[in-house]
Design brief:
Oligomer: homodimer
Structural class of chain A: alpha/beta
Largest interface: A-B, 52 and 52 residues
Number of helices of chain A: 11
Shape of chain A: globular
Radius of gyration of chain A: 21 Å
Strand content of chain A: 15-25%
Order of helices and strands of chain A: EHEHEHHEHEEHEHEEHHEEHH
Strand order of the largest sheet of chain A: 3-2-1-4-11-10-5-6-9-7-8
Distance between the termini of chain A: 37 Å
Number of strands of chain A: 11
Largest sheet of chain A: 11 strands, mixed
């Protein structure tokens, strides 16, 4: 198995990416080659400074770099020699099995659609994020790749998410829910009402109905489906509310010597809570519906986030995520005729 | 000034409503008559049991009751003798100045549109909620009354919210922002892009641009505008994430005697945090764009929530909320021609 890793993507590139790749080799590198894509001199120089042994890696020289300033729509044509575009092209050509990047989400999304292409019935891939919840997390899609969606897209998201939950997250018979402003079938906009009916008739999933956003963290969902505008709100608001509330605890504990001592007694428990909210634990968000596995690591990923994103890519390949998904999508579409 | 109060609305009616009304009379009753609407025998019996003196109140006998099971669209015709419909009708006829109810949001929204009517340029009123944030809260609208919106509706929400923030929340020159999945003008769906341009050109408000949901709690917004589907997600997800995280703290502190002692040292600080998240503090959500002040108190309101909703209604009347809003909306529409 060969996994392409974009060394130049993300806020902490190239250092965090190289360290994450090195840690991945150490922890679960057997039977897997990691190909590092980026300017060869940068890779060699950085690895040297960080005492990272490059022997286990393949290095694919890509002189160009995709930045956050690049127009996502033009990047494939403008920067064919960048680590992102070259990696996706090699993936498309079957010279490797998966691609991992912490670079620009917009550029990765558009370039994946253009180069790797999508499965039958999928116009553009959906970005799927494992969201924190006590007990077990849930897969949220679309998280922002497709701001406007039709009902059949949400239906496909249900199938794609369900297959991912089984194959990568290890969930049996995953519960799929639709974000909505009420539990009843007739709630929401006409598009959401239509999506509800399609999901209900979808033979590839176990649809459990609408979920109100108040209940998404209750831990009884595996997959939560919505359009990309709403998904982006769910993703970022969860982060914002958690950051604000946990941030408010800090001055409470820093108030005086007694409260500081108090913090020591609960430090372990708070660690579990922080771990739950930590996006590095999961690693990345797959672009579901792409013909081959593409994992978007969080832009702010540190080495652990990159390592875990590579682990996800490995599991996708090992469990034939894309083959299974393609079949399930065909069943979904057949039932929706 | 006369304020109509629906004694039969909400999970804790009639007791909590009567207590809230009695507390309102005690705290800020001068120059204000509260008219209690409901079955007279129920009002008299409950007040007797609770030792509430009915002398300061007007009682308007309404034999019928709107329930959560009533179809919102039909309730005005089916239950003209209910406290909700009779109250709105008297408000429309100028026999009082504002209406407060903790009853069914859907029924109140539709009946307000049909009976009280809306201001020029407003098809249906928007539900506006003061959302928690450290420092100062922000007014979110629409919170779910209008699942589907056009760009000109979001523009009107900006004006309506800005006037409410000035007249009722006491904010000078309020900052109005648009929920979106990025700070840049071109972000979001076509409808959100169009709304951004209209809000930017709106002479009645100080528009500060897009706000990402991650930043809504940062405390620098006074008014946050979005469609009712998204607003409902923001409202309920904020509640869900806060409930989940604060709920996770409980077992951490209950773990052993040391952690229980630790809790005592930070109890005061936690109280402030809980107070911030407490919807009873504000009281209710106004239906903005209705021709006269209608306040929806939270369905689970206790006496304090009802009292504070009555206070809001009083401030709306004292500061001529509706007159000011009508003029501001006319300016908004003129600029959008």
């Amino acid at each position: 198995m060969k996994i392409f890793v974009d060394v130049m993507g993300g806020d902490n590139a190239p250092n965090a990416v190289l360290q994450g790749a090195a840690d991945a080799v150490k922890e679960f590198g057997q039977g897997m080659t990691i190909a590092l894509l980026g300017p060869e001199d940068v890779i060699r120089k950085t690895a040297g400074e960080m005492n990272i042994d490059l022997a286990p890696f393949e290095i694919i020289h890509c002189p160009d770099v995709v930045t956050m300033e690049d127009d996502p729509v033009r990047v494939a044509r403008k920067k064919p020699e960048s680590s992102m575009i070259k990696g996706l092209t090699l993936l498309k050509n079957g010279e490797g099995d998966a691609f991992v990047s912490a670079g620009s989400t917009g550029a990765l999304h558009v370039a994946t659609s253009l180069i790797v292409r999508t499965m039958k019935g999928v116009k553009r891939p959906a970005l799927a994020t494992q969201m924190p919840a006590p007990g077990k997390n849930y897969l949220l899609l679309d998280c922002g790749a497709n701001a406007e969606c039709r009902a059949d897209m949400l239906n496909a998201f249900g199938t794609m998410g369900s297959v991912y939950a089984q194959k990568v997250m290890g969930r049996e018979n995953p519960a799929v829910a639709l974000v909505n402003n009420g539990a009843e079938e007739h709630k929401g906009t006409p598009m959401y009402r239509e999506a509800h009916q399609k999901l209900k008739a979808n033979p590839s999933i176990r649809f459990v109905g609408n979920v109100e956003p108040r209940d998404v963290m209750k831990g009884d969902m595996d997959v939560v489906v919505c359009d990309g505008f709403v998904g982006n709100v769910v993703l970022k608001l969860t982060e914002g509310v958690a950051t604000t509330l946990l941030g408010m605890l800090k001055p409470i504990f820093l108030k005086n010597i007694l409260t500081k001592l108090a913090y020591l007694t609960i430090k372990g428990g708070m660690g579990d809570l922080k771990k739950m909210m930590d996006s590095e634990e999961v690693g990345g968000a797959p672009l579901l519906g792409a013909s081959r596995p593409v994992i978007k690591a969080h832009g702010s990923s540190k080495a652990r986030g990159i390592k875990n994103a590579i682990r996800q890519a490995r599991i996708c390949v090992e469990n034939d995520l894309c083959g299974t998904m393609e079949k399930a999508l065909a069943d979904t579409m057949a039932a929706d005729q």
